[in-house]
Amino acid sequence: HFNKARYLMSAPTLALCPPETGVEVCFAGRSNAGKSSAINTLTRNGKLARTSKTPGRTQMINFFTLGDPDLRLVDLPGYGFAKVPLAMKREWDKNMGEYLQERQSLVGMVLLMDVRHPMQEFDSTMINWAVDADMPVHILLTKADKLKRGPAQSTLLAIRKHLKDAQVDDLVSVQLFSSLKRDGLDQLNQVLQGWMQV
Ligand code: GTP
Ligand code: MG
Protein backbone atom coordinates (compact mmCIF):
# COMPACT_ATOMS: atom_id res chain seq x y z
CA HIS A 1 0.00 0.00 0.00
CA PHE A 2 2.70 2.46 0.94
CA ASN A 3 4.16 2.65 -2.55
CA LYS A 4 0.74 3.60 -3.91
CA ALA A 5 0.78 6.85 -1.95
CA ARG A 6 -0.61 9.93 -3.65
CA TYR A 7 -0.93 13.51 -2.50
CA LEU A 8 -4.55 14.25 -1.58
CA MET A 9 -4.75 17.77 -0.17
CA SER A 10 -3.43 20.26 2.38
CA ALA A 11 -5.59 21.87 5.04
CA PRO A 12 -4.75 24.85 7.25
CA THR A 13 -7.29 23.93 9.95
CA LEU A 14 -9.19 20.92 11.27
CA ALA A 15 -12.43 22.21 9.77
CA LEU A 16 -10.91 22.11 6.28
CA CYS A 17 -9.54 18.56 6.56
CA PRO A 18 -11.02 15.79 4.36
CA PRO A 19 -13.95 13.70 5.72
CA GLU A 20 -13.14 11.69 8.84
CA THR A 21 -13.83 8.30 7.28
CA GLY A 22 -11.33 5.45 7.35
CA VAL A 23 -8.02 5.58 9.23
CA GLU A 24 -5.02 7.85 9.19
CA VAL A 25 -1.61 8.04 10.84
CA CYS A 26 0.14 11.37 11.41
CA PHE A 27 3.85 12.20 11.41
CA ALA A 28 4.63 14.77 14.10
CA GLY A 29 7.75 16.24 15.66
CA ARG A 30 10.02 19.25 15.87
CA SER A 31 10.83 21.27 12.78
CA ASN A 32 13.55 19.64 10.71
CA ALA A 33 13.29 16.26 12.53
CA GLY A 34 12.75 14.53 9.18
CA LYS A 35 8.97 13.97 9.04
CA SER A 36 8.53 14.70 5.34
CA SER A 37 11.67 12.70 4.52
CA ALA A 38 10.37 9.69 6.46
CA ILE A 39 7.09 9.77 4.53
CA ASN A 40 9.05 9.83 1.29
CA THR A 41 11.26 6.94 2.42
CA LEU A 42 8.28 4.87 3.53
CA THR A 43 6.38 5.43 0.29
CA ARG A 44 9.50 5.11 -1.91
CA ASN A 45 8.65 8.42 -3.50
CA GLY A 46 11.32 11.05 -2.95
CA LYS A 47 9.08 13.79 -4.29
CA LEU A 48 5.86 13.09 -2.40
CA ALA A 49 6.24 15.33 0.67
CA ARG A 50 8.29 18.52 0.42
CA THR A 51 11.48 18.50 2.45
CA SER A 52 14.01 21.23 3.15
CA LYS A 53 17.21 22.03 4.99
CA THR A 54 15.40 25.05 6.45
CA PRO A 55 13.13 24.28 9.42
CA GLY A 56 9.50 25.20 8.89
CA ARG A 57 9.09 23.74 5.40
CA THR A 58 5.78 22.00 6.06
CA GLN A 59 3.15 24.59 6.94
CA MET A 60 -0.19 22.86 6.56
CA ILE A 61 -1.78 19.53 7.45
CA ASN A 62 -0.87 17.48 4.37
CA PHE A 63 -2.82 14.36 3.44
CA PHE A 64 -1.60 11.44 1.35
CA THR A 65 -3.79 8.48 0.39
CA LEU A 66 -2.45 4.93 0.16
CA GLY A 67 -4.24 3.59 -2.90
CA ASP A 68 -7.50 3.71 -0.94
CA PRO A 69 -8.92 7.14 0.04
CA ASP A 70 -9.78 5.68 3.45
CA LEU A 71 -6.10 4.98 4.27
CA ARG A 72 -4.08 8.14 4.81
CA LEU A 73 -0.71 9.38 6.01
CA VAL A 74 -0.59 12.93 7.34
CA ASP A 75 2.49 15.16 7.30
CA LEU A 76 2.23 17.83 10.03
CA PRO A 77 4.09 21.13 10.38
CA GLY A 78 6.94 20.88 12.84
CA TYR A 79 7.04 22.61 16.20
CA GLY A 80 10.04 24.10 17.92
CA PHE A 81 12.17 26.49 16.04
CA ALA A 82 10.31 27.48 12.89
CA LYS A 83 11.28 31.05 12.04
CA VAL A 84 7.78 32.36 11.62
CA PRO A 85 6.03 35.22 13.37
CA LEU A 86 4.76 34.32 16.84
CA ALA A 87 1.12 34.93 15.92
CA MET A 88 1.42 32.48 13.05
CA LYS A 89 3.15 29.93 15.28
CA ARG A 90 0.33 30.17 17.82
CA GLU A 91 -2.15 29.67 15.01
CA TRP A 92 -0.37 26.46 13.84
CA ASP A 93 -0.10 25.11 17.37
CA LYS A 94 -3.81 25.67 17.88
CA ASN A 95 -4.69 23.98 14.58
CA MET A 96 -2.34 21.07 15.26
CA GLY A 97 -3.68 20.63 18.77
CA GLU A 98 -7.23 20.53 17.45
CA TYR A 99 -6.28 18.06 14.74
CA LEU A 100 -4.54 15.75 17.21
CA GLN A 101 -7.22 15.90 19.85
CA GLU A 102 -10.37 15.88 17.75
CA ARG A 103 -9.66 14.01 14.54
CA GLN A 104 -11.82 10.86 14.62
CA SER A 105 -9.92 8.94 11.94
CA LEU A 106 -6.53 9.37 13.60
CA VAL A 107 -5.40 5.92 14.84
CA GLY A 108 -1.76 6.57 15.71
CA MET A 109 1.09 9.05 15.82
CA VAL A 110 4.59 8.58 14.48
CA LEU A 111 6.65 11.01 16.58
CA LEU A 112 10.00 11.93 15.09
CA MET A 113 12.99 13.15 17.09
CA ASP A 114 16.53 13.76 15.92
CA VAL A 115 18.51 10.99 17.64
CA ARG A 116 21.07 13.62 18.67
CA HIS A 117 18.43 15.73 20.48
CA PRO A 118 15.64 13.43 21.69
CA MET A 119 12.84 14.27 24.14
CA GLN A 120 12.93 18.04 23.87
CA GLU A 121 10.37 20.21 25.55
CA PHE A 122 7.31 19.79 23.38
CA ASP A 123 8.02 16.11 22.59
CA SER A 124 6.85 15.02 26.03
CA THR A 125 3.73 17.16 25.70
CA MET A 126 2.90 15.35 22.45
CA ILE A 127 3.35 11.97 24.12
CA ASN A 128 1.15 13.01 27.02
CA TRP A 129 -1.61 14.21 24.71
CA ALA A 130 -1.58 10.94 22.82
CA VAL A 131 -1.49 8.79 25.95
CA ASP A 132 -4.38 10.78 27.46
CA ALA A 133 -6.34 10.10 24.27
CA ASP A 134 -5.35 6.39 24.42
CA MET A 135 -3.65 6.73 21.05
CA PRO A 136 -0.52 4.69 20.26
CA VAL A 137 2.72 6.55 19.55
CA HIS A 138 5.72 5.16 17.69
CA ILE A 139 8.88 7.23 18.16
CA LEU A 140 11.41 7.36 15.33
CA LEU A 141 14.88 8.45 16.44
CA THR A 142 15.79 9.93 13.09
CA LYS A 143 19.07 10.70 11.37
CA ALA A 144 20.55 7.62 13.08
CA ASP A 145 23.21 7.72 10.36
CA LYS A 146 24.66 10.78 12.11
CA LEU A 147 25.69 8.73 15.18
CA LYS A 148 27.90 5.69 15.56
CA ARG A 149 26.16 2.43 16.42
CA GLY A 150 27.10 2.52 20.12
CA PRO A 151 25.78 6.00 20.95
CA ALA A 152 22.67 5.41 18.82
CA GLN A 153 21.91 2.17 20.72
CA SER A 154 22.41 3.78 24.11
CA THR A 155 20.04 6.62 23.19
CA LEU A 156 17.47 4.02 22.13
CA LEU A 157 17.83 2.08 25.38
CA ALA A 158 17.68 5.24 27.52
CA ILE A 159 14.41 6.28 25.89
CA ARG A 160 12.94 2.77 26.25
CA LYS A 161 13.80 2.92 29.96
CA HIS A 162 12.27 6.39 30.27
CA LEU A 163 9.01 5.15 28.69
CA LYS A 164 8.95 2.12 30.98
CA ASP A 165 9.58 4.26 34.08
CA ALA A 166 6.78 6.60 32.98
CA GLN A 167 4.55 3.51 32.55
CA VAL A 168 3.59 4.43 29.02
CA ASP A 169 5.49 1.61 27.27
CA ASP A 170 2.23 -0.21 26.50
CA LEU A 171 1.19 2.66 24.19
CA VAL A 172 4.53 4.18 23.21
CA SER A 173 7.27 2.34 21.29
CA VAL A 174 10.59 3.56 19.89
CA GLN A 175 13.13 2.62 17.20
CA LEU A 176 16.13 4.04 15.37
CA PHE A 177 15.53 5.30 11.84
CA SER A 178 17.46 6.77 8.94
CA SER A 179 15.84 8.05 5.79
CA LEU A 180 19.27 8.50 4.27
CA LYS A 181 20.26 4.84 4.77
CA ARG A 182 16.69 3.47 4.73
CA ASP A 183 17.46 1.87 8.11
CA GLY A 184 14.52 0.86 10.28
CA LEU A 185 12.04 0.80 7.43
CA ASP A 186 10.79 -2.77 8.03
CA GLN A 187 10.12 -2.03 11.68
CA LEU A 188 8.16 1.14 10.82
CA ASN A 189 6.23 -0.73 8.14
CA GLN A 190 5.13 -3.35 10.65
CA VAL A 191 3.93 -0.82 13.19
CA LEU A 192 1.90 1.07 10.59
CA GLN A 193 0.41 -2.11 9.17
CA GLY A 194 -0.66 -3.07 12.68
CA TRP A 195 -2.36 0.28 13.27
CA MET A 196 -4.00 0.48 9.86
CA GLN A 197 -4.73 -3.25 9.53
CA VAL A 198 -3.53 -3.32 5.93
P1 GTP B 1 9.49 20.65 8.76
O1 GTP B 1 8.57 20.37 7.63
O2 GTP B 1 10.22 21.93 8.63
O3 GTP B 1 8.84 20.51 10.09
O4 GTP B 1 10.70 19.54 8.72
P2 GTP B 1 10.60 17.95 8.53
O5 GTP B 1 10.53 17.31 9.88
O6 GTP B 1 9.57 17.56 7.55
O7 GTP B 1 12.08 17.62 7.98
P3 GTP B 1 12.53 17.25 6.48
O8 GTP B 1 12.04 15.87 6.14
O9 GTP B 1 12.19 18.36 5.58
O10 GTP B 1 14.12 17.10 6.69
C1 GTP B 1 14.89 18.15 7.21
C2 GTP B 1 16.35 17.97 6.80
O11 GTP B 1 16.90 16.78 7.41
C3 GTP B 1 16.54 17.80 5.30
O12 GTP B 1 17.72 18.48 4.92
C4 GTP B 1 16.70 16.29 5.13
O13 GTP B 1 17.46 15.92 3.99
C5 GTP B 1 17.43 15.92 6.41
N1 GTP B 1 17.17 14.52 6.81
C6 GTP B 1 15.96 13.93 6.96
N2 GTP B 1 16.07 12.63 7.32
C7 GTP B 1 17.41 12.38 7.41
C8 GTP B 1 18.18 11.21 7.76
O14 GTP B 1 17.69 10.13 8.05
N3 GTP B 1 19.53 11.37 7.76
C9 GTP B 1 20.15 12.56 7.46
N4 GTP B 1 21.48 12.59 7.51
N5 GTP B 1 19.45 13.66 7.12
C10 GTP B 1 18.11 13.59 7.09
MG1 MG C 1 8.11 18.67 6.68
Automatic annotation (TrEMBL):
<keyword id="KW-0131">Cell cycle</keyword>
<dbReference type="GO" id="GO:0005829">
    <property type="term" value="C:cytosol"/>
</dbReference>
<dbReference type="InterPro" id="IPR019987">
    <property type="entry name" value="GTP-bd_ribosome_bio_YsxC"/>
</dbReference>
<dbReference type="InterPro" id="IPR030393">
    <property type="entry name" value="G_ENGB_dom"/>
</dbReference>
<protein>
    <recommendedName>
        <fullName>Probable GTP-binding protein EngB</fullName>
    </recommendedName>
</protein>
<dbReference type="GO" id="GO:0005525">
    <property type="term" value="F:GTP binding"/>
</dbReference>
<keyword id="KW-0132">Cell division</keyword>
<comment type="function">
    <text>Necessary for normal cell division and for the maintenance of normal septation.</text>
</comment>
<comment type="similarity">
    <text>Belongs to the TRAFAC class TrmE-Era-EngA-EngB-Septin-like GTPase superfamily. EngB GTPase family.</text>
</comment>
<dbReference type="GO" id="GO:0046872">
    <property type="term" value="F:metal ion binding"/>
</dbReference>
<dbReference type="Pfam" id="PF01926">
    <property type="entry name" value="MMR_HSR1"/>
</dbReference>
<keyword id="KW-0342">GTP-binding</keyword>
<dbReference type="InterPro" id="IPR027417">
    <property type="entry name" value="P-loop_NTPase"/>
</dbReference>
<keyword id="KW-0479">Metal-binding</keyword>
<keyword id="KW-0717">Septation</keyword>
<feature type="domain" description="EngB-type G">
    <location>
        <begin position="21"/>
        <end position="198"/>
    </location>
</feature>
<dbReference type="GO" id="GO:0000917">
    <property type="term" value="P:division septum assembly"/>
</dbReference>
<keyword id="KW-0460">Magnesium</keyword>
<dbReference type="InterPro" id="IPR006073">
    <property type="entry name" value="GTP-bd"/>
</dbReference>
<keyword id="KW-0547">Nucleotide-binding</keyword>
